Amino acid sequence: MQSRHDRDNYLLLNKDNINPDNFGDFSKETPERNENYNLPYDYGSIMHYHAWGFAKDISKPTMVPKDEKYIRTLGSRVLSFYDKLLMNTHYGCLDKCDKNTAAKCTNGGFPHPKNCSECICPGGYGGALCDQRPKGCGKVVRVTSTSPRKLNLFVGELREGEVSRECTYWLEAPAGSKVEVKLISLSNWGIIGGCHIGGIEFKTQADQKATGYRFCTKSDIGTTLLSSSNRVPVMAYNHESVFEATIEYKVVKPR
């Protein structure tokens, strides 16, 4: 991902901190060699190095997103929605379903090529048409107060056979308003690229197909985000052990 021809629009490289033996890993492709099917850059792609990848000094990043709040999103170990869309586009799977009869997916989803009546959905969305909160733990939280309210999120130990567990919350404000969220506390996993052991993801960005902002360290506490719409999917997850966090939320009414 960091070798995309357009990566300089999204990343700043700290070349002085890159191990000289690994400069080639940061080579940028040409547009002619790099077909991205007009899909946007995704900081949460499984193909993206983490921010400290190949560093001479591991305390300093080798690359920083231009939107710095994405720094811990880099280095994911799970497929992002755009990864899935890219592969399905490349291999012609999107043409397997008849557009006239296939599921009418919402929130950017696309028909599943092996079951055209259901959709493959972006993170934070579920149901046959991507218009519901994913099944399982979590809930819909109505956001109506202009004073901060707290929400505790807890993801328990993995059961036998599980490789991950995720709880999805929807913070929903009245139409036309926005949601402000603030990270108050969380389990501390240290500086881990991609927050792959456990973390919390906020999808406040306009493009809900893209991966959201992920956080998993004490230094992330106090981060405040403002949504682009009246809904914020929030995913708390773990891949190894218990994860818990506390957030504050409030409505921001239109002026």
UniProtKB/TrEMBL annotation:
Highest taxon of the source? Eukaryota
Q: Does the keyword Calcium apply?
A: no
Q: Which Pfam families match?
A: Astacin (PF01400)
User: E.C. number, please?
Assistant: 3.4.24.-
Q: Which GO terms describe its molecular function?
A: metal ion binding; metalloendopeptidase activity
Q: What does the Swiss-Prot or TrEMBL cofactor note state?
A: Binds 1 zinc ion per subunit.
Q: Which Gene3D superfamilies match?
A: Collagenase (Catalytic Domain) (3.40.390.10)
Q: State its cofactor.
A: Zn(2+)
Q: Is Aminoacyl-tRNA synthetase tagged as a keyword?
A: no
Q: Where is the Peptidase M12A domain?
A: 1-94
**GO process annotations (BP):** molting cycle, collagen and cuticulin-based cuticle; proteolysis
Instruction: Give UniProt keywords alphabetically.
Output: EGF-like domain, Hydrolase, Metal-binding, Metalloprotease, Protease, Zinc
PANTHER family hit by this protein: DISCOIDIN, CUB, EGF, LAMININ , AND ZINC METALLOPROTEASE DOMAIN CONTAINING, ZINC METALLOPROTEINASE NAS-31
Question: Know the name of this protein?
Answer: Metalloendopeptidase
Specify the taxonomic lineage. Answer: Eukaryota, Metazoa, Ecdysozoa, Nematoda, Chromadorea
